[in-house]
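Researcher: Quick sanity check before group meeting.
Model: Go ahead. Protein one:
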Amino acid sequence: MKIKLFLLFIFVSVVSAWAKPIKVMLVTGHTDKYHNWQVTSSYLKAILNHNAVFSTDEVLIPESGDAMKNFAPDFSKYQVVILNQNDVDWPEKTKTAFEAFVKAGGGVVIIHEADNAFPNWKEYNLMTGLGGWGDRNEKSGPYYYWKDGKYVTDNSAGSGGAHGKRVPFVINVRDSEHPITKGLPAKWLHQNDELYGNLRGPAQNIHVLATAFSTKETGGTGKEEPVLFTITYGKGRIYHCVLGHTGADFSDSVQDVGFQVTFSRGSEWAATGKVNQKLPTEFPTETTVLLKDLNQLK
């Protein structure tokens, strides 16, 4: 009887440890004039809460001034930091603390305009792999895209960051065995979004999970651009998603179930290196989108 009780205790302890929510810090509160951080962050929190895998704390970035000098969130209390921000700088002590957190194994998730941030912070650009705007050019690193069945490292001169009209486009999975994308359709239609292209950066330790073709007819680059990819930095895992554009009067992209599922799975992978979430029974197809708004996520 004692042996049975001991084994039961061990089983319950293991289950309890596995079921403990992943601690997430969502850093937000300030983006550029083209993005609506309030809308995006509302969806990011709802997506994570809907899954019941995460425990999320939102950390708001001060707008400017003396408050920013004291911006120093304690990254060490969390397993993964999600960045939904741009167009603001951090104090040097905060940058140093963030570098140490990731090098030691902390996870990071980069959403859309967060890859525009910190163009002059070398370590951040190593973490994101690729970025856009912020006066990025050939000195920032090469362009990186898919062509003729392989990835191209393009060192030609030019600015980093471009996108065409906000339209639906097909996501093409390039690694169907990675924990984030395993079990997903090879192709699915993503709802209206900005398809970032001509991103450039160090492109080191980068692994592309999915791409999308940016058509010239919609003002795009005419290239198959990386849209979901991972990067390693020290012991840290980074999931970079260029999707997720929102504005004052639209939130199409973050209502997309494909975005929601890959964001949630990418957050778990960045935190733990694994994905235990089950895939939903419904998912977008190559020709149809599938949407869930905030009310459906709460």
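Researcher: Fine. The other one?
Model: Protein two, sequence then structure:
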Amino acid sequence: MTGLASLVAAALHEDAADSDLTCKATIPADQEGEASISAKACGTLSGVDAARSVFEQVDSGIRQQWAFADADAVQAGDIICHLSGRVSRLLAAERTALNFLQHLSGIATLTHAYVQAVRDTGCQIADTRKTAPGMRHLEKQAVVHGGGVNHRMDLKSGMLIKENHIAAAGSIAKAIEACRSLSSDVWVEVECETIGQVCEAVENRPDIILLDNMDVDTISKARAMTPKHILLEASGGIDLANAHAYAETGVDRLAIGAITHSAPALDMSMRLT
């Protein structure tokens, strides 16, 4: 079973989808019908593969006609998918399918809003590892559907030296040296909270410098002193209202934890037709 299939199976088990008492009481097991999933708000779609897998696992006989794909813009009232099959099975799958679609579309929608906020600057919007346990792959995929880019998928896909690593190693220079000694196959990023730390980092040539909780003026100074071959990333204190100002400093990307950990769900519903 693939990772997605396993995740969907766990979600269906959590919902006891095979033991839907309400459907057993009210709907004949062989009753056929049709249903549609529609958007109740404007946004960017994500989670189609997960929702498709939900219906397939509940009943492989359910017929699915998707009118939209991941990364598509949807408007309130749009019919996203038309479904047909046994009514009891459609309803047993409903909540789990919508949970995936609404949550992931919410992430894609918020990401897209940030991407639009910085669209004329050349700055990218990146995610973080602030994801729900077990959902990282899908949530980071939703970020891409919204036009963003992925940061580290996990702790082995890159080295990010943060304040605790610096304290343990003794200095930024020692931490970068230790990371380079361990592996030359992955990128090394170092978090800096002051201009002094940026100076030390630049001298030791990491691949990326993370400017943490700096204001716009300080970030502009950091950009001026950092060679272009070192990617600059800003994080902390950034929201939709000020994202453009941060992007105009010349940083390469903004890391926004909120796009995964605080995105509101995109409202959708499923109705029998």
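Researcher: One line on it for the slide.
Model: The chain has eleven helices and twelve strands.
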